[in-house]
Specification:
By secondary structure, this protein is an alpha+beta fold. The chain contains 23 helices and 28 strands. This is site-specific DNA-methyltransferase (adenine-specific).
C-alpha cells in the first residue's frame, strides 16, 4: 500500500504550485476536497448515492475540454439527485480555474491517489482524506485551526466518551473530524453535525462521504447552532447520547436572542455575556444531552474562572452535579496559536462513586512536539484515560474534589487551584510547593485584602487618542517601564488618561504586573514624582505602614509560596492575567513590623553578597580564559571591551 501521508503531502504541495496565482491559498482545500469527493463517488461502488450517468473519472483525467463546465454540471446534478448534498459541491465554482490548469490539477490528484481497489475500502479512504485535510491545515496555520481539530485531541475526546450504539452530535462541526472519530470508534453510531460556514459545511459533507458514513447514519446541517439549531423534533431540541465539540474560543454571539430562545437552553442556568460564546456552547450541549448523556467540550481557560454570569452558570452546573471532570491540556496544541485548553467533561448520569465530586487532571506537561506545534502522543492519551477510568486520586496529576471545596474556591474550576503540590521555577531553582503544608504549618496569617487597598490600574486610551495627544497628558507606568524590580520613572510615556486620582501611585505602593508572560513586582520609592498606574498592573496600598513593610510584602509575593498563589489563580490563556480579587485573598505569614524589617534587611544583604560573589566568579572565569589564550599565543590579539 502506498504511504498515505506521502500521497497527501504530494497532492497538497503540487496542486498548490499549480493554483498559485489563480486562487488564494485558503481556497486550495475547496478544490482538492471536492475533486477527491468526486473521485470517491465515481470510483467507490458502495456509497449509495445516486449519480448522473454522463461522466466517469477516466473521462475527467483524459481531456481538458470544457472541464470546468463538466465538473460544475456534475456538481449540480449530483446535488439534485441527492438532496442531502445540497450546496456541498456547488458552493465552489470550478470556472474560477482555467481548463488547462484544472486538467493538470486533476491529473496531479490522480497520480498521487489511491488505487480503485483502495477506493472501495472506506477505512483507507477515511485515512486518505484525513491526511489531506491535516496537510492543508498545517500549511494554512492559524486559518487551518479555525476548522481543523488536532488528531490527538479528537481521539482523547471520543475515548473519554467511549460511545456505544446511539447518537452523537457536534454543534461546531468544522470539517467533521470529531464526528468522524466518533464514527470510526463505533460505526453503528449515528452522527449529527452543524456548521455555520457554507464552504466548510461542504467539506464536512465530503469528509463524511469519503469516510463511508451511510446516508442514513450521517446527518449534517448548515447554520448557527446558538441562534438557529437545526436538529429539532416534536419535543423541541433533539437530544443525543454523546456530544463532543471544539467550539470557537470566546467570541461574540447573539445574546439578545437567548432570552427568546424557544428551546430554553439559556433560562435554567443563565445567559452568558455577549463576548463569551464558548459558555453558550456549553449550555447548548447540556440542553442537547439525553438524561444519561455525556459530553466532552474543548474550552479555553476563561470558561473555568470568569465572573458575573459565567460564574453563576458554573455554580448552577456544579450544584446539579453535571461536571464530571476538568482536564488541563498543553498549550500550542492548535496551529498558529499558543492558547492552552481544557476538556470539560459533562455527564448527566454519573456513577455513584463520582456523584457530588469533580475530577481534576493535570496533563499540561505531557506532549510531543514538532517545529510548529505540540501534540498529544498515544501514551499521553492513554495516561489521561487511565486516570479518568480508574478515578485516580493521587494528588500529583489527578485529584478528586468535593462540592464544598469547590464552593470555597468561589466555583473556580482552574485545576491548579486544587493541587496541594505544585512545581515552580523560582529564583532559587525549581521547587515543589505544598499548599496544604503551608496552610497547616503557618497558623497566624493575614489576607492582603485586610491590610491593603488592592486596585487595578487605569485603562489606556486608544492608539488614535494617543497619537492625537502625542506627548501630552500624564506619566503612565506600563510593563516596559519596570526593569530589574525598579520603576524607570525617567522613561515613562505621557498619555491622555482620565480620572487619574484613583490611579496615581504613592510612595510605598507595591505594584504587580496583572498580565504578560513575566511577573514584575516593584515598590514605589520615596519622593516619587506624579505617575499613574496602567491597567497592566495591580496596585497594593498598605493601610498602615507603621505595621506593614511594603518590601516584606514584595518579598513574600516573590517567594515560592507567593508565586504559587499568583500562578494557581492566574487567568488567561497564553498570557498570565491576575485580577485585584485574586491578590486580595492571598494569605501571608503575619509578622510584627520589627521582624518584617529584619527579614527585608537579610534579603538585601543576601542579594548584595550574591552580586559580589557573582562578579568575583565572572572575573575569575574571564581571567582564567585570558591566561589560557596567553599560553595559546593569541592573548595579545585580544582586547577586552568590558570588565
Amino acid at each position: 500500500m502506498k504511504n498515505i501521508k506521502s500521497l497527501a503531502r504530494d497532492i497538497v504541495s503540487n496542486v498548490g504550485e499549480k493554483l498559485r496565482g489563480t486562487l488564494v491559498f485558503n481556497e486550495y482545500k475547496h478544490v482538492i476536497a471536492r475533486i477527491v469527493g468526486i473521485e470517491f463517488l465515481l470510483l467507490n461502488t458502495g456509497h449509495g448515492y445516486n449519480l448522473p450517468g454522463n461522466i466517469t473519472w477516466q473521462s475527467l483525467i483524459n481531456s481538458p475540454t470544457n472541464l470546468s463546465d463538466r465538473l460544475n454540471d456534475f456538481s449540480v446534478n449530483v446535488e439534485s439527485f441527492n438532496t442531502q448534498l445540497e450546496a456541498v459541491f456547488t458552493s465552489f465554482d470550478f470556472s474560477k480555474i482555467d481548463n488547462v490548469t484544472l486538467y493538470e490539477v486533476i491529473n496531479i490528484i490522480n497520480k498521487h491517489s489511491l488505487s480503485k481497489e483502495q477506493f472501495n475500502d472506506t477505512d483507507v479512504t477515511g485515512e486518505y482524506i484525513d491526511a489531506i485535510f491535516s496537510e492543508l491545515a498545517l500549511r494554512e496555520g492559524k486559518v487551518g485551526a479555525e476548522y481543523f481539530t488536532p488528531e490527538g485531541l479528537n481521539e482523547l475526546m471520543i475515548r473519554l466518551l467511549s460511545p456505544k450504539n446511539g447518537t452523537f452530535h457536534d454543534g461546531a462541526a468544522g470539517i467533521g473530524q470529531t464526528a468522524m472519530k466518533a464514527f470510526q470508534y463505533n460505526k453503528e453510531i449515528s452522527v449529527y453535525g452543524q456548521e455555520i460556514v457554507l464552504s466548510i459545511y461542504g467539506l464536512l459533507q465530503i469528509n463524511s462521504m469519503v469516510h463511508g458514513v451511510k446516508k442514513e447514519k450521517g446527518h449534517f446541517a448548515l447554520g448557527d447552532t446558538l441562534s438557529d439549531p437545526k436538529f429539532i423534533n416534536e419535543n423541541g431540541l433533539m437530544q443525543f447520547d454523546y456530544i463532543a465539540m471544539n467550539a470557537p474560543f470566546g467570541g461574540t454571539w447573539e445574546r439578545e436572542k437567548a432570552e427568546r430562545d424557544i428551546y430554553g437552553r439559556f433560562t435554567r442556568y443563565g445567559i452568558p455575556s455577549k463576548s463569551h460564546g464558548d459558555m453558550a456552547f456549553v449550555l447548548h450541549a447540556v440542553a442537547s444531552l439525553k438524561e444519561n448523556g455525556k459530553a466532552t467540550m474543548v474550552v479555553p481557560h476563561g470558561v473555568l474562572f470568569r465572573g458575573a454570569a459565567d460564574q453563576e452558570i458554573r455554580e448552577a452546573l456544579i450544584h446539579e452535579d453535571l461536571i464530571e471532570a476538568v482536564i488541563a491540556l498543553p498549550s500550542s496544541l492548535f496551529l498558529g496559536t499558543g492558547i492552552p485548553v481544557v476538556i470539560l467533561l459533562l455527564n448527566k448520569n454519573k456513577g455513584e462513586q463520582k456523584q457530588g465530586k469533580v475530577q481534576f487532571i493535570l496533563a499540561e506537561d505531557n506532549y510531543g512536539s514538532t517545529r510548529t506545534q505540540k501534540y498529544l502522543r498515544t501514551e499521553d492519551i492513554n495516561n489521561i484515560i487511565y486516570l479518568y477510568e480508574e478515578f485516580q486520586n493521587n494528588e500529583v496529576d489527578s485529584r478528586i474534589v468535593n462540592m464544598n471545596e469547590i464552593k470555597e474556591e468561589n466555583y473556580v474550576l482552574n485545576p491548579k487551584v486544587y493541587f496541594p503540590q505544585y512545581e515552580l521555577s523560582t529564583r532559587i531553582g525549581t521547587v515543589m510547593v505544598n499548599k496544604n503544608e503551608y496552610e497547616n504549618s503557618v497558623e497566624d496569617k493575614m489576607k492582603l485584602g485586610d491590610i491593603a487597598k488592592v486596585f487595578r490600574g487605569v485603562n489606556l486610551p486608544s492608539k488614535s487618542a494617543i497619537k492625537a495627544n502625542e506627548g501630552k497628558g500624564h506619566k503612565v507606568i506600563q510593563l516596559k517601564d519596570v526593569e530589574g524590580e525598579k520603576i524607570q520613572f525617567n522613561k515613562l510615556d505621557r498619555l491622555p488618561v482620565q480620572n487619574i486620582e484613583r490611579y496615581t501611585v504613592q510612595s510605598g505602593d507595591i505594584i504587580i504586573s496583572s498580565r504578560g508572560t513575566a511577573l514584575k513586582i516593584a515598590v514605589v520609592p520615596d519622593n516619587v514624582e506624579e505617575a499613574v498606574l496602567s491597567n497592566m498592573f495591580i496596585g497594593i496600598r498598605l493601610l498602615n505602614k507603621e505595621e506593614y513593610n511594603p518590601h516584606y510584602i514584595k518579598a513574600f509575593l516573590e517567594s515560592p509560596i507567593g508565586l504559587y498563589f499568583l500562578e494557581a489563580y492566574q487567568k488567561g490563556s497564553v498570557m498570565r492575567v491576575v485580577t485585584a480579587k485574586d491578590v486580595e485573598v492571598i494569605e501571608l505569614p503575619k509578622k510584627d513590623i520589627q521582624e518584617q524589617k529584619l527579614l527585608v534587611k537579610e534579603i538585601n544583604a543576601t542579594e548584595q553578597e550574591y552580586k559580589i560573589l557573582l562578579e568575583k566568579a565572572e572575573r575569575l572565569y574571564r581571567d582564567s580564559y585570558m591566561n589560557i589564550y596567553e599560553k595559546m599565543g593569541v592573548g595579545k590579539a585580544i582586547g577586552l571591551i568590558e570588565g
